[in-house]
Amino acid sequence: MAAPMTPAARPEDYEAALNAALADVPELARLLEIDPYLKPYAVDFQRRYKQFSQILKNIGENEGGIDKFSRGYESFGVHRCADGGLYCKEWAPGAEGVFLTGDFNGWNPFSYPYKKLDYGKWELYIPPKQNKSVLVPHGSKLKVVITSKSGEILYRISPWAKYVVREGDNVNYDWIHWDPEHSYEFKHSRPKKPRSLRIYESHVGISSHEGKVASYKHFTCNVLPRIKGLGYNCIQLMAIMEHAYYASFGYQITSFFAASSRYGTPEELQELVDTAHSMGIIVLLDVVHSHASKNSADGLNMFDGTDSCYFHSGPRGTHDLWDSRLFAYSSWEILRFLLSNIRWWLEEYRFDGFRFDGVTSMLYHHHGVGQGFSGDYSEYFGLQVDEDALTYLMLANHLVHTLCPDSITIAELLKEFKDEDWNMGDIVYTLTNRRYLEKCIAYAESHDQALVGDKSLAFWLMDAEMYTNMSVLTPFTPVIDRGIQLHKMIRLITHGLGGEGYLNFMGNEFGHPEWLDFPRKGNNESYHYARRQFHLTDDDLLRYKFLNNFDRDMNRLEERYGWLAAPQAYVSEKHEGNKIIAFERAGLLFIFNFHPSKSYTDYRVGTALPGKFKIVLDSDAAEYGGHQRLDHSTDFFSEAFEHNGRPYSLLVYIPSRVALILQNVDLPN
């Protein structure tokens, strides 16, 4: 643990150290004013910021600045020159020799040797043919040949490869030289950053109801319109960076600069992003810089014949739980590689930002394995922190600060309890327990809950009855009725109370049945569960449409009132006996009755303002599969009657298992 700086030691030393830190670190004074409990760690902030500043300065002095440093993909790899020749460059410090081979030279491994440069770099220029045509045409296969110091001959894919494919029954991927005559021309500019983030977490490959790998084209034509129609304004795309093992969910990256070819071509991914932009939807990339696949034939591992090229050597370079390799973030060339990778996805594909995966693993030497976090600040400082990784994240954020989303923390709702046993205080605490002014993305469930071994929220609530009792032609069973009502309530309370952004994993908006499981040996390579059955919402005879409608109208209402961009909610009631939660946010009054059987007539709810209130969202409405127990023409008037710390209050009929949003119609929208 950290040994925090405290005034108890020597007051004059404490004050001097604190003042020095305040002088060195921009905005530190404001941070400590917001959260004085961080004062003992001012020196830690100072050290970290100095390390970041020094590396940034070194990049400026040695590379001409981070702008130039982060353009490594313009020289490394293989590039066609203006004269039709080919320029090739690699970093392989442990190699004895480096060569280029492929279709173009009949796979002769040694006919095109690279020239050794300083700092482990190698370069090669191949002149054009006599007729000025390129020697290596678009679509041809290539390999880098490494001769190691131990005498091995190794065939490798360039770490900077832009496109790789696996053909037929081949075990490994092939590197394809991607140099089309005409590149994709973007037609639409990036949308403005929305005031509220409503994120649709997506995986292209599972986006079809068919048992196969879906394509970028399919997602663009069929899924994007659904996302737009549901009112989401942001897509978070998973499993885009190339990964040899499909069942890794995209988290075992083999080629960091290659968009996964199992879904289509780079141009088709560019079209997907461009089309999303035309709809006003921003697109975030799930970027995996926390670790890399152990593959060597088609990955980064052992690229130059050593275990220390891109990664730490020895035990520090391996994540035992994930069976993957860990980057050496202090290495100059690895910083170039990773920062260039960030820029590549921003510029080549026009992604609007990133979700960094595995940050806990990056930030701590223990990688979070077997560790619990109580929230005590001492857990976030000290020797357990990998400050090289932290500095890399600071550099990455610095590089894209105008495009990257703000720092994200996640709040997850309670599950595995009967709703009779749910504690209203626990629900509110879980959704509101976050540091002041720290923006959070809240979700009731993400992709993790859909994976085999876990269950989606709908499956937790309704389980096997989803197979037999979702038809509108049959009466509600108690299980289906409970599940549909609670599914809506849980998602709305998370949306309204949980953070400054909201995330949904594709299909969960309509209560997707079953779990998610990718083809693998354990399921006989089946695609049956690696799909999303969107067609279920289009069937008027199935109840999935009710959950889909509620999700759509919830998002559209947020777009109108902007509660995610509003200050944190004021919770006026969390009554355990009555199972009532009430709060105000963005001028709206949210009321939840989680009681399984009790309805309340003339229930008094506090509010900040006088005026007339109307229902603007009612989970009990017919179009949402509710029981229609509320009259939407009813006017509710608040009176100067103090209740639960609010100066005004109103009387409301609140049926059991219902969520309501009331608007003060005397206020301007």
What does this structure look like?
There is one protein chain. The chain is globular. The two termini are 50 Å apart. It has 669 residues and is α+β, with helices and mostly antiparallel strands. Helix 3 packs across helix 9, helix 5 (216-230) packs parallel to helix 6 (266-278) and helix 13 (478-497) packs parallel to helix 15 (544-561). The strands form seven sheets. It has a seven-stranded parallel β-sheet with strand order 17-14-11-10-20-19-18. The chain has a six-stranded antiparallel β-sheet with strand order 21-22-23-28-25-26. It has 15 helices and 28 strands.
User: Care to count the β-strands?
Assistant: 28
| Helix percent band | 25-40%
Low-pLDDT runs: 402-412, 414-418
Q: Classify the secondary structure makeup into a structural class.
A: alpha+beta
On the 0 to 100 scale, the average pLDDT is 91
List the defining traits of the structure above.
alpha+beta; about 675 residues; single chain; 7-stranded parallel sheet; 28 strands; 6-stranded antiparallel sheet
Characterize this entry briefly:
This protein is an alpha+beta fold and 669 residues long. It is built from 15 helices and 28 strands.
